[in-house]
Write a structure and sequence with these properties.
The structure holds two protein chains of two kinds. By secondary structure, chain A is of the alpha+beta class. Chain A contains nine helices and eight strands. Chain B contains six helices and eight strands.
């Protein structure tokens, strides 16, 4: 149950067996069925979720009623409404399972306690958040300067596992493209 | 809370468990019914759906699986059975809310030792018929269970920490 979590953790920061045992006591094992919500907007996000198995998405709903998918998470990835998690304000994201999922949740209080008691945890968080920020910067630049086809190509190159795992209309919703524009971009790519 | 929470009722086919399941069926909860007798579980599910056709309920014959999926675990079993269940679900009850309704007293501390990282809440009756008293050490867990009690149609009274349960009455519908 914990193997993948500690594998990913140790890729960033190496833990001793004792430290791993301590960290384990803070983790909440949670099973989620397909289409079940982990979080609905309006609630405070109390957990970050590490995906052991399955697939989740975080999305907000535009006034038009369209889903805007902000983030995907598959095995080894972490997902949350980070703004809500950190500030304690109501979440603006919904997070649900696209496939049946097994998760390891870390609550806000567990997170706060670990930051004080386990210095390596703080390092892990620093690396996680820095990585996320860098990815966000790249994403913003791409959104501002590239054509839909170029954006899709880059996304495909960087995250082929996501393109395989999630339905096309969700990938389109993530990129801010209509399914038709995405289809056109994929056809153009294939014909090259 | 807006997000639907999942509650596993361990011992759902018992008198207390089935009464609690029925009370929660109309609330914003996904209810997993665990019991050893499959026929009784099916009968309970049918009875609940008759009154509440839109209830989100599912019988499960594995306490580990039910507890894994749950956000809140309710032990509606006698004190003697609690220890056996606690040992089985310990891993997947880690950091989760576990509600015990068995005879209070030193039982609370023993159960906490078996589930060292779970947020244990004792629920019990007061002299008033529409009240349910709660005791626990975790403030957020108390709030979540208070919401559950309200949803079941009772008034929650927070008594304090687990240690206060030594002198109070067991719950009984």
């Amino acid at each position: 149950m914990y193997d993948l979590f500690f594998q990913k953790f140790n890729e960033k920061v190496a833990l001793t067996a004792e430290e791993a045992d301590l960290l384990k006591t803070y983790l909440t094992p949670k099973k989620l069925r397909k289409k079940q919500y982990l979080l609905q907007e309006g609630d405070v996000c109390k957990y970050t979720a590490f995906v052991v198995k399955g697939a989740l998405r975080a999305y907000s709903i535009a006034e038009s009623g369209q889903d805007q998918i902000i983030q995907f998470a598959i095995e080894g990835w972490t997902i949350s409404d980070l703004y809500s998690f950190i500030t304690g304000e109501p979440a603006t994201y919904n997070i649900d399972a696209v496939e049946d999922a097994e998760l390891l949740l870390l609550s806000k209080s567990a997170h706060e306690e670990l930051l004080h008691t386990l210095p390596k945890y703080e390092t892990y968080i620093r690396l996680q958040v820095t990585g996320a920020y860098l990815a966000l910067q790249k994403r913003l630049t791409a959104a501002a300067s590239l054509s839909p086809e170029e954006r899709y190509t880059r996304f495909q190159e960087q995250y082929p596992e996501l393109v395989q795992r999630f339905p096309q209309h969700m990938i389109a919703a993530h990129m801010g493209l209509t399914p038709e524009t995405l289809s056109r971009a994929r056809r153009k790519m294939k014909s090259k | 809370m807006i997000t639907k929470q999942t509650i596993a009722i361990i011992g759902a086919t018992g008198k207390m468990g089935s009464a609690i399941a029925m009370k929660l069926a109309n609330g914003n909860y996904r209810i997993l019914l665990f019991g050893k007798r499959e026929a009784a579980l099916q009968a309970l599910q049918a009875a609940i759906l008759e009154d509440y056709p839109f209830a989100d309920i599912e019988p499960i014959t594995c306490s580990y699986a039910a507890s894994w999926e749950a956000d809140i675990i309710l032990l509606a079993v006698p004190y003697a059975a609690e220890k056996e269940i606690a040992a089985k679900i310990r891993e997947v009850a880690n950091q989760k809310i576990v509600i015990s309704i068995s005879n209070p007293g030193s039982a609370a501390e023993e159960l906490q030792q078996l589930l060292p990282h779970s947020k244990l809440i004792k629920a019990f009756k007061t002299s008033s018929t529409d009240e349910v008293a709660l005791a626990g050490n975790d403030v957020e867990a108390l709030a979540a269970v208070a919401e559950l009690v309200l949803s079941a149609g009772f008034r929650p009274i927070i008594k304090g920490k687990l240690s206060t349960t030594k002198i109070l009455e067991p719950i009984n519908f």
